[in-house]
Amino acid sequence: MRPYDSMMPYAYWQSNKSADPDLIGTDKAIKTYWNFYKTHLKDAEKEKNYLHIRDEVCKWLDKKGTRWRTQDTTGIIKELLKFFVDDDPDVELSFRSKARTYLAEDYDNIGRINIGWGICGFAAALEVAYNKDPQVKKEIDKDNAAKSVETKLLNKILEFLLYLRDGDLRNGIHPRHDILNEIQNFTNLILSPQDKAVVKNTMKEFNWNTLITRLTNVKSTIKDTALHGQLMKVYLGGAPYGNISMYPDALVAFLKFSKIKSAYTTDVHLKNYVKGPSKQSSILGVGINDNNPKTYYGLQHWVYQDTSGTIHSYGEAFPGENVSIWKNWRVLHYIHGF
Prior knowledge:
It is a single chain. The relative contact order is 0.11. The longest helix is centred in the N-terminal third of the chain and has 22 residues, at 43-64. Helix content is 53%, strand content 9%. By secondary structure, it is of the alpha+beta class. Strands 1-6-2-3-4-5 form a 6-stranded antiparallel sheet. Strand 4 and strand 5 (316-318) form a beta hairpin. It has helices spanning 8-19, 27-39, 43-64, 71-80, 89-103, 108-112, 120-132, 134-146, 149-166, 177-190, 193-202, 208-221, 228-236, 248-257; strands at residues 264-267, 282-287, 299-305, 311-313, 316-318, 330-336. It has 2 domains: 8-103; 108-336, no CATH class.
């Protein structure tokens, strides 16, 4: 805590801590301090007092983590995330990371799989399926308990790639090598210089046919299915094989494959948006507009935005925030209709 002696709430807080040392890092502490913060301070003083309540919430999160989720504290944390005080960037960013993890939903375990992988489009699409298809929700909740969500997502990706390669001729669905080829072209086009150097030493370039072969071999030669996710990860994202970069129509195809038949995409790269449509579930394609249609106007990342406007990415929830928090990105594409 920082000693701003002129602030009535801080003096009150100090006296209460003296009387009740167990108050620190508790629900009661946060609620008591928050009530003063919210009702007794002028706007000019909010920034200083924000630092105090932020520190107290950090202690609470360190003490209880995500296991003790309460309605009051959840609401307070969401309010705190609307502020950003640059007094100590490391402390501030640490708080925000803890808070976003605390606010994450069960399905954010899907997004967490994407960390370091480069399969953000698939992760965002599966988060949509979780919220729209009760059967998918039931399966993923079961997999969460068994810690096998990773394997489910990776199997789903392989099934989709095989579907595009082979089609489903019995149901009149032809192969879509055009989608696979464009995924390949787009992935190789936007790979970072570091990834390009690594990919060149391993498989020369991202190649969908080689990728499918390797993933299939993992499933057919490794009997322990619990290892499939870990082994398939090697080929699906990040070093040493680069990412699978999904362009908008490819992601719509994956959603339709995942029984979200009404999905469609809208190009909004000229609008300078930082959020998706309000009160509407969407997948947002984000990046910095480079005006290049070959890169889909600088597309770098996919995130899921729920009906409350909260963005979900990398296993965290971002209530009250928008995509500009990542490198000043903007929304370039919407995928919606579900």
